[in-house]
Design a protein that fits this description.
Chains A, B, C, D, E, F: Catalyzes the conversion of (8S)-3',8-cyclo-7,8-dihydroguanosine 5'-triphosphate to cyclic pyranopterin monophosphate (cPMP). Chains A, B, C, D, E, F: InterPro entries: MoaC (IPR023045), MoaC_bact/euk (IPR047594), MoaC_sf (IPR036522), MoCo_biosynth_MoaA/MoaC (IPR050105), Mopterin_CF_biosynth-C_dom (IPR002820). Chains A, B, C, D, E, F: Pathway: Cofactor biosynthesis; molybdopterin biosynthesis. Chains A, B, C, D, E, F: GO terms for molecular function: cyclic pyranopterin monophosphate synthase activity. Chains A, B, C, D, E, F: Pfam families: MoaC (PF01967). The structure is a homohexamer. By secondary structure, chain A is α+β, with helices and mostly antiparallel strands. The first copy, chain A, has 2 domains: about 1-30, no CATH class; about 30-155, Alpha-Beta Plaits (2-Layer Sandwich), CATH 3.30.70.640. Chain A has 3 helices and 5 strands. Chain A has helices at about 50-55, 60-80, 120-140, and strands spanning about 35-45, 90-100, 105-115, 145-155, 165. In chain A, β2 (about 90-100) and β3 (about 105-115) form a beta hairpin. In chain A, α2 packs across α3.
């Protein structure tokens, strides 16, 4: 758990590798615990029929999206079990929203912690699993459902400061 | 757990909802256990610098991709914990491959079972988590990494027979 | 894993103990896999204010009860992790309902399997965790919420045949 | 994760819902970490035969109750996995006791943390799972065993101060 | 998931690797489900003081060993989560015993399944975790406690037939 | 959760037992969070053929050892789920190395935390599971593989200060 990061290809560093180039959980013992937040978002493309079904109101819509959102929140907490080198962090808040658009569903996860490292992976995992769970709910009516984008949208806190995706 | 599926919008059925439109784990007690396979695939867009780093050989590449593949295999087994209404199934085989292309990495998961229902969700979850794990490995060198596609590619076995995505 | 059950106090047997009186997971290798179902139910007493809030319609009610139901379904799948001596079983169906009454909420779980042993514990665990999850959702408005009953209501299948609680 | 709680029915607030009335993990980022403790208790009604068996000494009694207690301690740690909106907290102590009475077993769980929110749910979940595990141990001799009460008994620490159930 | 095993170094085959030499969960879809059993054993060397303490009777001894045994049983069920390429199998019986000897504790796990592949890894994992759990229980009195042996002792069932360690 | 440890056999104390001699998770609420590190090591004896196979270069070696190392890192995070009375701790770093020797493989785990109690059990569990995972990878070519030693090698931090095994 040497502090010195492995340098390669100029400035590029793969901090998750130790001196021997082997995977490890990066040592963050010396980093102070600060308030951090990350937002990730994803989009699931759905058929017109499926969108109509989700929009036709009543409990079904609520339940399909509620299941996806809850799956996302629970997945944020499961991130250290799923992503082999992620640190276990005390999450202090997680919100996952799911909005039906004309051609699919947009899912956004915001995750907060007070810890020595960021929560981008928690937000990304929450969105990915919420997208999968939504597909599970509607796959009987739309077997072509597809996740078309999952990405970190913004993060704040920590040494690297605030960042917002702009591509 | 009434057998009668909830009918809505013509033929469309959301089988994961009970008569009251509430989420449930669909009853598959009366479906025979048959050999089933599903394949899912995903793509993570990466910067040229990151692709070069992954291609520059040696252990690091092996480890970054190995971590992603192993995360995917383990996620296939965790699917019933992550996707709220998925059935626990005895997986009989899981293979996850990760191939570096000129602009990213293509991840493919093949999952097999001998069970009463299919393993599309297991394959889809394996790919999603493998993509997230790969991003975790390289996020220090490519903060814009993005999952651009996760989809079921093919399935075989079960009552609905073989199916291959053709869009 | 001797087949001979430990006999004590006449006919009474604690099958979960081995010959030395130690806890073990009972050997069911020789029991045939048959269709089995179990139903459990529970009641959470709630304040009039809380009942009114849950009944006042809109999404909140849906979400509070949906969270409890989903927690119950997921807990059924987690039973072998929670109940030390329970067998891992391939659940083929799980439905959890939650109904608001004048003085609380009645939660019912029905679980099915095709296996060598029954699913009473899965149904009981699903109800218990759903009750806890409901309390979590409303504890800010009703700190006196209390689980007043959790019990197996009926079971069918297996050697012992159908049984219905009648006390 | 807006700070403003959703107001409904006068002062009553369901803090686990966001502005859209959807379930979320409440944001506690701004709450200081303080020492907190919660106690919950539950009662499992058992037949006279079953009570006699548990009281007849020797290893079996020890093991049946030990299994229930250990299941409870482990369940306290699993609370964030079971209760969808619970925060993961660093538990600093957990004790579960099980006492056989004339008509059943009384189970008490005390849980401590140094965190930004309380551990009532951890104590409640520990008791619920311990009760279920006890039933699993004795269900072969008492199929009518029933959980008759699970409730938070007291809590201390945090902004709301000490509280003791008095109903 | 090609059936053809990777051949290397004469007859030696590492079946957990695919044609590209990458880790995978071996495909056992075509293997029949048969009754299988595996036994593993381990030894934890303990100080004389610690042995005396475990032998001095009363509840403590029961609890320390009971905790180790229960941890082992639960670990058998967790094997597919811990060993990346293990298949999830429906365990039909698990027994873990712990015996105090003059210089330590001997732990034995017997695991049974009705499945397409064996349960050596489940037995091995159960023993390893039981040994760790025992050390956790007594580490305050014996910081030099050491696991000195963990091995598969015997297996039966499956194509390869019965086997007993004889070294 | 009384602070007073149970005294027995002179100075020897089994702190994991409460006043009634029952297992509990020790109360560490009053201990300050300090930087702590623990190292554990283990040895898996392997046949000459197996050692040659692991040494013969190429991807297979990388993957077999990589799987073992990753399993170890993930097991460190799972310790509170596996060891019944372990505290959940925020690990700040974990590194597992695996080195092939002439007669087997030496596995070393270093774990760090900033917490109120040590991480010996996390290091010990990481090594044990990594050893099991390695055996799973090579068991097709070496059915006599055996774990011959797993022990805590050193620890630092906390009230008891630095310690290094010297037997």
């Amino acid at each position: 758990m040497a502090e010195r990061p492995v340098e390669r290809a100029g400035d590029a560093t793969l901090t998750h590798l130790n001196d021997a180039g082997e995977a490890r959980m990066v040592d963050v013992s010396d980093k102070p615990a600060t308030a951090r937040e990350a937002t990730a978002r994803g989009f699931v493309r759905l058929s017109a029929e499926c969108v109509a079904l989700l929009r036709s109101g009543g409990v079904p819509k609520g339940d399909a999206l509620a299941v996806a959102r809850i799956a996302g929140i629970m997945a944020a907490k499961k991130t250290p079990e799923l992503i082999p080198l992620c640190h276990p962090l005390p999450l202090t808040g997680t919100d996952v929203t799911a909005e039906v658009t004309d051609d699919g569903a947009e899912i956004v996860a915001r995750v907060r912690t007070l810890g020595p490292t960021g929560v981008e992976m928690e937000a990304l995992t929450a969105v990915s699993v919420a997208c999968c769970a939504l597909i599970d709910m509607i796959k009987a009516v739309d077997r072509l459902a597809r996740i078309e984008r999952v990405e970190v949208a913004a993060k704040s806190g920590g040494r690297s400061g605030d960042w917002k995706r702009e591509d």
